[in-house]
Design a protein that fits this description.
2 copies of one chain form a homodimer.
Chain A (H helix, E strand, L loop, with lengths): L2 H14 L4 H16 L10 H10 L9 E6 L2 E5 L5 H19 L1 E9 L6 H9 L2 E7 L3 E3 L9 E2 L3 E5 L7 E5 L6 H10 L8 E2 L9 H6 L1 E2 L5 H16 L22 E9 L6 H16 L15 H13 L5 H12 L2
Parallel strand pairs in A: 2-3
Antiparallel strand pairs in A: 1-2, 3-11, 4-7, 4-11, 5-6, 7-8, 9-10
Helix pairs in contact in A: 1-2, 1-11, 2-4
Chain lengths: 338, 338
């Protein structure tokens, strides 16, 4: 399926779910970019859970998004419980407009929902010459270091640096060592997991995937990753005026309730720092220094963050992208209503 | 020794090294705050290496710092190879001034040197009501994931969130799992190290502290920490116009050469987001949710980032701080010249 076909089908599916045309286009763009980067879990497959919550009234089909100019460089965005990618796209655009004008722009969003992967926002920003730092809070899955109850989310955090004429550097990561999906996969295969991935219910590191799934994900770098996850929630949740920590409602446990997630978007206009030739020359040199590192395994050269995703992206844009038959069925069913 | 005494002695020592009074005060403030937070390695003990480089001409005693307004919200600071804390303090102040005016401010510094710990800058910003994201590049000690040659630094990264009337949250971390000092300590004690701390010279994880010291520090979370370290260098080094990656000169190998380090300071004025009562109430609630987490070990309650450092800080401010006799000797020797 070509990008254009997937974009059109996904947008139509969201229109079939009662979402306005422009909002459906924005949602489709973020999710389709997720698929193009090869992150099917954060791609159009989300139509299933987003659709379920739209149908239940857990997400507002037609939000009245309000933007407050709390300072010349800061937009506070109230998402009115709209789809995350709708609120996210609006916040990104507000932050870019301020950064274009002043060099730096910040958008703080509240009243939002799951907004897809972060890489699509960083990529859209990089296309316009903006460096970005973007984060979101999320449902609690991580216990604080030394604790045995989930009190903070696997706060995703992303960064993008534009590279005029070349591949931007994009880092999009959650702050757990691995996603729960990897632990579920180990359980299915009947394999033990490294004791650095998760703890059991009592907060003790475990190699048993079953105990791990009943317990908590471990953050990267121990207390450092715990600290980072908490900082993301402070910027995305606490400073934005959204919910934070355990105040964030669980999507799976209470799909009809508003989550009140928060996001932050910090954008920097690199055009203020030098010409595109200047930036391109530095980005080429930066990448070359890393690529030229002697490899531990000569068959596996050193890569930059986002490089594998951007290679997939380029291939998918040329050759089209595969979507699971089941997901296509859902998209087509909703699209038929439009 | 009281804070005031240590501040006065350290400032006099830097004046003895030929640094101007105001610059000596700024340098002393950043280093003394490092000691008050309990990070003696990033405190006044740095007078030794800073002094050596000032004497060799590797650092400029009397820099002409230039500030360019590249955009209303962005200051580009050329440190003219001055002491890191002098350049850092100036950049912090420029970023705060812009954030006070526009809500957000960015300062990008180049031509700088080691600027002490990051926590002091985050603390100074938090005192004025600013949230902060601050980073610096540094001499290469980390091999990229899959590589077997150091190509990037242990890029320190810090965050601060003010808490009116209470303790701010401050996270100041390097992106390696541990500092080299912990590996040296294991070697001294004849102990093995976990294989997650470092690799040998060939880039293979090792439990032998000797092989680790000849090899490379491992970043937190594998490729995630590698990615973060690289992002810090992109913002602090590449975008600022400073050196980056292997272009950064090694202080220990070439103490007479300018390092051309870069830093970035992103400041957000929280007064634009709500009243201090609003912020204080949310910060109290946020901390309470984490403190109330049932602890894995009942004797070790859950803490917030920076909490232990801020407790030490309060105690040291009241009771004074201990400084190593050897370091005191160096301070007094330089101060005698002033």
């Amino acid at each position: 399926m070509t990008e254009a076909e997937l974009q059109a089908l996904t947008a139509r599916a969201f229109q079939g779910l009662g979402v306005r045309a422009r909002d459906a286009e924005d949602t489709a763009r973020i999710l389709v970019l997720g698929d193009l980067f090869g992150h099917a879990t954060h791609g159009v497959s989300r139509v299933e859970s987003y659709g379920e919550r739209l149908e239940l009234g857990g997400i507002n089909r037609a939000p009245l998004i309000r933007v407050e100019d709390v300072a010349p460089a800061i937009a506070r965005v109230d998402g009115d419980n709209g789809l995350g990618p709708v609120v996210g796209t609006r916040a990104l655009n507000e932050a870019m407009a301020r950064a274009r004008h002043l060099g730096v722009g910040l958008a703080l969003a509240r009243g939002s929902n799951h907004f897809g992967a972060i890489a699509p926002y960083c990529w859209l920003a990089a296309q316009e010459g903006f460096a970005s730092i973007i984060g979101s809070n999320s449902t609690t899955t991580i216990a604080p270091t030394g604790g045995r109850e989930a009190r903070l989310g696997n706060s995703p955090l992303g960064f993008g640096i534009p590279h005029p004429g070349g591949r931007p550097v994009i880092l999009d990561m959650a702050l757990s060592v691995v996603a729960r999906a990897r632990i579920r996969a180990a359980l299915t295969r009947g394999e033990a997991i490294p004791d650095t991935w998760a703890t059991d219910r009592e907060g003790r590191p475990t190699t048993d995937p079953k105990a791990a799934l009943e317990g908590f994900l471990l953050p990267i770098g121990g207390y450092k990753g715990y600290g980072l996850a908490l900082i993301v929630d402070l910027f995305a949740g606490l400073l934005s005026g959204a919910s934070y920590l355990t105040h964030v409602k669980s999507w799976s446990e209470d799909p009809g309730a508003a989550q009140d997630l928060g996001h932050f978007f910090i954008l920097i206009d690199t055009a203020r720092l030098g010409s595109s030739e200047w930036l391109a020359q530095r980005m080429v040199d930066f990448a070359a220094i890393l690529h030229d590192t002697p490899a531990t395994d000569p068959g596996k050269p050193v890569r930059l963050p986002g490089e594998i995703e951007l290679e997939r992206f380029e291939r998918h844009r040329q050759e089209g992208v595969q979507v699971e038959t089941r997901v296509l069925g859902i998209l087509e069913r909703y699209a038929a209503r439009a």
